[in-house]
Task: structure prediction
Amino acid sequence: MTRLTLVLLLLFGMAPALAGDEAPPPSEMVLLTVSGLITKTNRGALDAKKDSLLALQKLSFDKAFAFDRPTLLSLPQGEVTAQPPEFDKPATFKGPVLRELLGFLETAKVKISFVAVDGYTGYLEPQDIDLSDWILALEADGVPLGIGQQGPIWLINTREAGDKPSDDHHGHWVWSLFYMKVGE
Result:
């Protein structure tokens, strides 16, 4: 009987390791949810009542990764200096490097779709991500981006002078970003 108890304890102790790449849930308010072709997750399926804003945008997923601010800040950070139309002068934006966030989640190298709080969408192809310094900006000139100031997250990169986003939403600077989907 003692041997059976020991085997069961060992198996139950190993269960989290055998369950896959499940990370602990966020300890603070969630700013960004990422689903799709990701290996690392920390939350289950969309709950239409609990996740009402995600449900309102007609999003769905079985598993995802929910990022709070401390988790986003724990990733390698990047810096982009740009002057978006919403700003009177250039600003220095800081936040996690998109490539690093995708690497952290062990994602497939596919199209990434972005959704803002107001339902605005954009996307990037893998080559867009590889060829530019996209960041998920959490601050501009040292000040956190709040809701109403294009935050709490703004997908942004350095653009050439006069370069405007395309009409098909490809490579747009999506502000008030709260959801990303890896893959179609």
